[in-house]
Design goal:
The complex is a heterodimer of chains A (155) and B (83).
Chain A lengths: L3 E7 L5 H9 L7 E8 L3 E2 L2 E10 L3 H16 L2 E9 L1 E3 L4 E9 L2 H18 L2 E7 L2 E4 L4 H8 L5
Chain B lengths: L1 E4 L1 H7 L3 E3 L9 H9 L3 H6 L7 E4 L2 E3 L10 E5 L6
Classes of the chains: A alpha+beta (155), B alpha+beta (83).
C-alpha cells in the first residue's frame, strides 16, 4: 500500500490519539506505530516559564520538514508518517510538536521518529521565545541537539 | 532580491523583509552579511557574530561561501530552536 506523508504547521492544538488512528485507518500492513509528543514545560533550570511563542519561516518550514520526511521514507520501510508543529503562543502543558511513524515492525518506526525529531530540532526553521517573570528571551540552541542530529549522518 | 529576517535577527534589524540590490562585488552569502553589516548599526548589531547566523536561499539551508547569484529570496536567522 502507498505510504502517506502528512505535514502540518498550525496554531491549533492536535489530538494525538486521532492522528495515530488516522495513520493506521483501514490498513492491515501496519504492525507498529510510534508517536512522540513535545510538550511545553512550566520551568527550565528551576525558572518558571509562563508561555512559549513559536515563530517560523513559512514556506521553508514546510519544505524542510518534507525533505526530512522524504529522507526518512527512503531510509526506513515506513507505511506512513505524520508531523504536526504548532506555532504561536503555547502555555505549559500544551502540545508543541507531534511525530507519528508507522511501519510493519517496530524498529523502523522507532528509528524514523527519533531521526525526524532530531532534525526538527536543528534544521527546521522554528524559533522559541520564552516568557518568564522577568521578561521574554529567545531560547538558545543546544549543542547536544546538534550532536543528536549529527549521529544520523551517513559516513 | 528579497531578504527576510527571523527571530532576534529580525528584532535587531527592525524589519521582517526588504528588497536589496547588493553591488557587483558581493558574490556570496558571507559577503552579503558583511555588506549589510556596513549599512548601519542595526545590521552590524544583528550580524555582530556572523558565525552564529544561519542562512537559506530559496528555502534551502546554505553556507557563507554559497554564491547568491540567481537567488530570489535570502533569509537570515539564528540557530533553530523548534521541536
Amino acid at each position: 500500500m502507498t505510504a502517506i506523508v502528512t505535514v502540518h504547521i498550525q496554531q491549533a492544538d492536535f489530538d494525538v490519539a486521532r492522528e495515530i488512528a488516522a495513520l493506521a485507518k483501514g490498513r492491515t500492513d501496519i504492525g507498529a506505530v510510534v508517536s512522540f509528543s513535545g510538550i511545553c514545560r512550566g520551568n527550565d533550570d528551576g525558572e518558571s516559564i509562563a508561555a512559549l511563542t513559536l515563530e517560523h519561516y513559512p514556506g521553508m518550514a514546510e519544505a524542510e520538514i518534507m525533505r526530512h520526511a522524504n529522507e526518512a521514507m527512503a531510509r526506513w520501510p515506513l507505511s506512513g508518517l505524520t508531523i504536526i508543529h504548532r506555532v504561536g503562543r503555547i502555555t505549559p502543558g500544551e502540545n508543541i510538536v507531534l511525530v507519528v511513524t508507522a511501519s510493519s515492525h517496530r524498529q523502523a518506526a522507532f528509528h524514523a521518529a527519533e531521526f525526524l525529531m532530531d532534525y526538527l530540532k536543528t534544521s527546521a526553521p522554528f524559533w522559541k521565545r520564552e516568557e518568564r517573570d522577568d521578561g521574554t528571551s529567545w531560547v538558545e540552541a543546544q549543542a547536544h541537539d546538534d550532536d543528536a542530529a549529527a549521529r544520523w549522518t551517513r559516513s | 532580491m528579497k531578504v527576510k529576517y527571523f527571530a532576534w535577527v529580525r528584532e535587531r534589524i527592525g524589519l521582517a523583509e526588504e528588497q536589496v540590490e547588493p553591488p557587483a562585488g558581493v558574490h556570496t552569502v558571507g559577503e552579503l552579511i558583511a555588506w549589510l553589516s556596513a549599512r548601519d548599526e542595526r545590521y552590524a548589531y544583528a550580524f555582530e557574530k556572523p558565525k552564529v547566523i544561519r542562512a537559506a536561499i530559496d528555502h534551502v539551508h546554505v553556507r557563507p561561501e554559497t554564491a547568491i547569484a540567481g537567488a530570489r529570496e535570502i533569509a537570515f536567522f539564528p540557530p533553530m530552536t523548534g521541536g
